[in-house]
Structure formats: structure tokens, C-alpha cells
Amino acid sequence: MNLRKFVTAGAIASAALLGLAACSSTTGAAPESGAADATGFAVNSDTLVFGVVPDSVDTETNYQPLMDYIAQETGKTVEYHESTDYAALIEASIAGKVDIASFSGFTYITATNNGANLIPISSIVTEEGQEPGYYSQAIVPKSSSITSLDQFKGLKVCFVDPSSTSGYLFPSYNLLELGINPETDVTPVFAGKHDVSVQKVGEGVECEAGFAEDSEVEKSDKVKVIDQVMVPGAPIVMSGTLPADLQKQLEEMLSEVSIDQIVESGVKSADSEAFRSVFFSTEPVDDAYYDLIRDICKKTNAKQCQA
Asked: Are residues 113 and 244 in the same domain?
């Protein structure tokens, strides 16, 4: 979230551009120290750690063009850091172990509620004219007779992760609005990833219904959508401990940039059909953009939102 659709395509190989260091192709371990170094960086002033959660099998590959672009424009090595789950990314951000990250809206709110110093920069749009945001979709097996959310009561229901915006927070809110407790009125199954949630629902064994983001649902012919709700776009964030001049540079680079601009700048890894299918441009977002999620946190009293 994903940079939501970044996790859906298989684009881009690692590259070093204009003689500058690009990203590591390994799953980078977080720095051993418990906080950013004395200069405000997670590791050091020559390195930017880019944190993500692996929402699907292609996560690292799909972030490569953006990391290549950041490496090229800043002259720094961009180190890929893959957290095992949303909670681990939140923990890493609170500890100052990431410099830039792709959060879900829910994860961003949870992290900042718990002391993470993060500044939202932008959100990805995948088509021209699109607003930041995506759909949390309620799905059932293709052959299911279920046609509405109020029929989920008593079922085995796949969620993605307790800290997933589109895979848990919004679904929980929508179920509660119908008088269905997502913890006690259904049997919750946490799939871990959006694509796995879709897969399990399609199989109809572990899960009779479920939720996932639209970019993963649309790839399956074994499920059908019976409801959906728009979710604020997942933010690209930067650490508020970074030097002010670098913060300004990252904001200028990432607030409003199109794929054509990235390609024209010399990042050849972005010039692929796969990447173009998941990235059109970024649109600026700020902290207030996520007030809807704060409101839903209050209404659901979700413990994951709490500081």
C-alpha cells in the first residue's frame, strides 16, 4: 500500500544511476541502534533507509524505480528495509530506523500516535485525473450466494492484518455500522497480505468471505466484490529528524512527480509497462488528509490506533 498498487506489479531491476548509489536488492536489516544517529539519519548521512511492508510477493521489485529516483536525485545510497508486518514498521519508525517509508494511512496514524516523527509527503495515483485513494473491497468466492455485508455474520472472514487500513480498519468500521462485531460475530482469519486474503477467499475453505485492496482483488477471477469503500491514499512519509534542507529536497522531489518526469530524469528502471501500470504520478497530502482515519479510529475504538 500500499503506495498501494506498488505491491502489484513486477517491475524494475536494481540499477546505479549517474554514478550514484542505488538501492540494495536485499531485505535490509534495520540499524542496530535504537534511534536515528546524531545527524538525524537512521544509519548515516550518506544513506537513506526506505521502509516498507511486504503486501505481496513483488514488493521490493515494485519499489525499485522510486528508490532509484531518490538515490539519483539525492546522491545517497537508498537501502531497502522490509518489515515483517505493519507493527514492525511502526516500531522501526518510532525507533528512528527508517528515513523514508511507505505507510498505510492506518499505520501512519498509529505510528504518530505512538511518538514517531513522520511527515507525509504524497500519495500515489495510478491514472491521470485520479485522486489519491483506493478501495477496500469486501469479497466472496465467485460461486457464493452472499450479496451484502450484513450476511457476513457467523462466517469465517479473512482480514489482512490488524494494522491494515483497507484490510482491517475500514472493514471493521463497516461491519460495526451493521451491528456486526468483527471480533466476536465473525471468525477472523488474518491472512497477512492482501493477495493471500484474496487467495484464501477464492478457495472458500479457510475464509468464506473477506477483505482486500482493489489492486489485488482485480487480479483474481475466483472472487467477486459485494461492497467497497474509498480509503485515503497511502502516504509516502519522511522522518522529521532529517536535516531541513534534505526534507525540503524530498518534498520537492516527491510531492508532485509523474512517471514521465522520473524517466526523463534518467531513471530507466521506471520505463517499463509493469511500472506504468501501477504508477502515474504522486499527489501531495498532509497530516489533515488522514483525519477521516482518526475519526474511524475513535468510532471503532480500535486498540491498534491507541498511543
From this structure: yes
